Fold:
Amino acid sequence: MQRMTLGRMQNPVRGFMDASAALASVIGAVALVVMTRSDVPRSISMAIFGASLVGLFTTSSLYHSIQWGDLWRTRMQRLDHSMIFLLVAGSYTPLAVNVLTGAWRWSVLIVVWSVTLVGIVQKFLLPRVKAWFSITLQTTLGWFAVIPIVEMVNLLSDGAIALMVASGLLYTVGMIAFTTKWPRLSPRVFSYHEVFHVFVIGAAA
Structure:
C-alpha cells in the first residue's frame, strides 16, 4: 500500500512529529545549558544531552521527509539508526557526570560510549549484520542503568527514578512495536512506525 505524501514530502506525519521534537529539543537544550552555566562540567553534560536529542530528531525528520536517491537513502538510514545510540549515550552522560561519582561515574561513561561506538561502527561498516543485533544492543544499552541503579537510588529522588524507568519502558514498547510491525492502524498515514516515533519522543521527553 502506497504511503501518504504531502507534495514532495515523504511520510509527513513522521516528518512533522520529529521536526517538532527537534525544535522542542533545541529550546530545552538551551534552557538546560543556561540553567547550569555556573557549573562547567554540568553545563557540558547538558549540552551533550541536548545535542544528542536535536541530532536524533533532526536526522530522523530529514530522513523520513525527503525523497532521497538510493545511495543517500541508505546513508541517511544508517545515520538515523546510529543517532539512537548517540541519544542513549547522551542521556546517560548527565546522569553519570551530575549524579554518580568516582569509579561509578567513569565506568558508566566508558561502557556506554564504548557500546555506542561499536553500534555506530556496525551500522556504517558492517551494515549486513542482522537488524536484531543493533536492536538488541540499543535496548540493552538503554536498560544498562539497572546496574548502577543501586548507587543512583541513594542519590536521586523517587520521582527521578520513576521518570527513568518510565523512559525505559516507553522506549522498549516502541521498539516492540517497530520490530513486530504492530499495530498497523491506518497503514497509509499512521502505522507501527509512527507509533515507534511517538514512544521514542515520549521516552526522550
